[in-house]
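Researcher: Last one for today. Full complex below.
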Amino acid sequence: MTDSATPEQNPIVQRLRAWDSDAVTQVIEFRSELTLVVAGANLRRIAEYLQNEPGLEFNFLSDISVVDRLPAVPRFEMNYHLLSIPNRQTLRIRVWVAGPDPVVDSVTAIYPTANWHEREIFDLFGVRFEGHPELRRILLPDDWEGYPLRKDYPVEGFR
Amino acid sequence: MTTTVQTAVGTAEAMVLNMGPQHPSTHGVLRVLLELNGETVVKARSEIGYLHTGIEKSCEALTYSQAITLTDRIDYLAPLSNNLGYCLAVEKLLGIEVPKRAQYIRVLLTELTRIASHLVWLGTHAMDLGAVSVMLYCFREREQILKILEMLSGQRMMTSYFRIGGLALQPPPGWLDPVERFTDMLPSRIDDYEELLTHNRIWELRTRGIGVLTAKDAIALGVSGPMLRASGVAYDVRKFFPYSSYEEFEFEVPTRTESDCYARYLVRVAEMRESLKIVRQAMPLIAPDGPIKADVPGIIPPPREEMKTEMEALIYHFKIFTEGFAPPPGEVYQRIESPRGELGFFVVSDGSAKPCRVKVRAPSFVNLQALPQLAEGSLVADLIACIGTTDIVLGEVDR
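Model: Here's the assembly. Have a good evening.
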C-alpha cells in the first residue's frame, strides 16, 4: 500500500526497476493495493530479491491465489500475496500462465509455506509447479479426475 | 516409503500408524500418518480434505450477498470473523464505508467470537491432555456468548449477522446488558481456568518444551496468529493493518518467546483478557440507536419502512435480491485477525453480479503445515498437545 501519486512512483517499484529494468512488466493499483505483474521466468529471482533485500524484506508469503480467466489468453492468473513483517508492507506479485497444461516455477525453496498452497492449486486448478518437492493432490482423493475450480468445470450435475 | 530406525537391538523398519481421521484429539477429521520408532514420532504427515465441500467454487455460483452464508461455515467456531473478512473484502471492492456504529458492533462481536473460539480451544485442548473439568467450565462460558449472538441474530452459530455494508438487523434494545454481565463475570472465570492449569505440575510437564517452533521457521512456514506470537513475533493484523476502526482501541498484543505448547496456551489466555478490554471499550461507543447500514442505493438494501412507502426503494430492493449488484472489475485481498491467525479473503470481480473468484486464506490450513516441525522427534502423546495448540478447525482447513 502506498501514498505516492502514481503507482509507478512507488518506492518498491522504483527499487525493483533500479535492480532490473525488465523485472516488472506492469504496475497496477486498485483500492490502494499494489500489484506487480512479472514474467513467469523471473518469478523465483524476484521473490528471492524481495525476500532478502534490506528495506523490502517481504519475508512472509500470506497466500497464493489463482484466477481462471477463461476465455482470456493466457488463461491463469497467479497472485502471490506478500507481506513484510519488519516494514508493515504488502505487495501482490502476479504471473500469467498459459493453459491448457499450465506450468510455473515453484517458490517452495524460497517460501516453504508455498508447499501446501501450490499443492492445493495443482489439485483444484491443475497448474503444475516446476521444482515442487511433493506435487500431489491435497484436498481431493488421489484418483479424482479433472480440476474442479476451473471455469469449464460445472458447479453441479454430472461431469 | 518407510524409514529405517535404530532401535535398542539393531535397525528396524519404522512402524506406520494411521492416526485419525476418526480420532477424538484430531478435532474433526484430520488424518496423520505417523512413522514411529517405539513411541517416538519419526515422521508425521497430515492428510487433509475429508471435509472439503468446495466452498470457494460454490461462491462463484452465488451473488455477493448470498455467499455470506457460506463464509459462516468455513471456520465454524468463529463464524463472525469469517463474515467480517468477507464483508470487508466486498466493501473494499465496492469502495463503500460502513457507519461507525456498525463498525463498533462488528468489533465487539468479533472479539466476543474470539473469546468463544479460544474457550472451545482451551476446553478441548485441556481435555485432550486429561483435564476434563476445564472443558465443562469453558463450554459453560461460551454458551453465554452464543446466547448473546442468538439474541442479536436469531442464530447461535451460523449467524450471517454481518452483511455487505453493515449488519443484518438492528440489535434489540438492552442487548448490551448481558454483554456487560458477561464481561464482569469472565475475568474471574479465566482466573479459575488458570488456577486449574497454569501452575499445574502435570499441565506444565505435558506442555513445557513440547512442540517448539522457532520464529524463523514459523515465518518461513507462513504460521500466523497466536502460534506465531508464541514464537515471539508480534504480528497481529489488527495492529499492522487496522480494519473496522481497530485503530481506535487500546489493547496489547501478547507475545511469548518460549515457542512451545505452554507459550501458545499463555498467549491465548492473555488474548482472551485483551479481547475483553476491547469489548469494554466498544460498549460505550455504541450509540443506542443509529444507522447500521451504509446508505448506498442499488447496493445496500433500503430500510423496510422506505421500501413500503417509496417506489425507488422498492425497485432497489427487488433488483438487489433478484439480480444482486455488480462491483467494478478488480480484485482485493482483505486480511483480518481471526482467532487462529491471518484470515484472508481474495475476492475478484469481473464486473458481473457474482464473484469471479473467492479465495480464502485459511489460517488453520497454513498453520497445520507446521505439524511435522512441531511433532517430529517427540512422543505420540506430545503430538496430541501439538495438534491441540495448533488450534485447527477442519472446516477451515478443507473448506
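The mean pLDDT of chain A is 87. Chain A touches chain B at residues 30-31, 33, 59-63, 65-68, 79, 81, 85, 88, 90, 92, 111-113, 115-117, 120, 124, 137-141, 148-149, 153, 155 (CB under 8 Å).
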